[in-house]
Amino acid sequence: MATILQYKCPCCDGKIEFDSSLQQMKCPFCETTFDVSTLQDYDEILNQQAPQEEMHWDTDAGSEWGQNEYMGVFACTSCGGELMTNETTAATSCPFCGNPVVLTGRLSGDLKPDFVIPFKLDKEAAKAALKAHISSKKLVPKLFRSDSHLDEIKGVYVPFWLFDADADANIEYRATRIRAWSDTRYNYTETSHFALLRAGSISFDRVPVDGSSKMADDLMESIEPFDFSQAVPFQSAYLSGFLADRYDVTAEDSVARANERVKRSTEEAFARTATGYSSVTAKNSNISLSNGKAKYALYPVWLLQTSWQGNNYLFAMNGQTGKMVGDLPMDKGAYWRWWALWAAILGALAFGALLLLRLLEII
Fold first, then answer.
1. For residue 242, which of 122, 326, 70 has the smallest C-alpha distance?
2. Hey, which end of the chain has fewer CB within 10 Å, N or C?
């Protein structure tokens, strides 16, 4: 039975064919040409790479979380008032007397976190950080700075899965090198395309993945990094005075996001070894993990919510480092004035450059 073999252009993925006039392989889309021997060597190297990704983890930590959890009712030991909490609440405060309450039974046994990073910054520091964050944004409406209301601020210990693993990778990159020059009539740009192959091993320690469905993953990733050197073995005393949730996204359900982060970090790390190019982009990657394990930790986060003109804005601050992120309204008038200013500056520069060229031609 005949086998149909097609070569794809390493630059644009178009189907390339042999050009008899050039005696080379040529892509009809980007017009890149290749020696036949080069493509054969390239194909052989690709075929030597691992056939498929293997990214598995040992995720036994916290595996005995029950499937029959329910809303719990607890009596405050200070005033006797009854507290009703959902199944993931591990620390809160009494709504009647305000005293902190830690539900130790929900963080015991196999549900007990391995580590906790205690809060380093208090509520006042979070308020000051929010004010500084808003003040630093030039396109925020002036009225928002004065009229927005801080409706809620709370310190929350957010559950995180921390993944350790060793990664072996084979990665193919698409790279370009751009050369530009001019003569008296034209400006020229030459773009050269390259296929790069990188292979090696890299170890990852404590890749964090948010274990709470209440927290947006991108929001939690935006306030990273946390300094794990300040982590301590878990003690429930650290939770007093703060809110805390236990995980409701299991380690097994967090593996896909851990793999995504490991893959992206590996590609970026290997790409940094490819120097001297205008751009380097991962095209194909093959990653195999070994010694993958997950630990369970609680990380400190301040959540602040403001309101303005009927809209709510949520901010998150790293309770250890003070890094603040969140959405802000934009002053559209200021935005367009800013663009107009830059357009005028760029236009003036372009006009000056053109005038200089004309003067050089006259001379």
1. 122
2. N
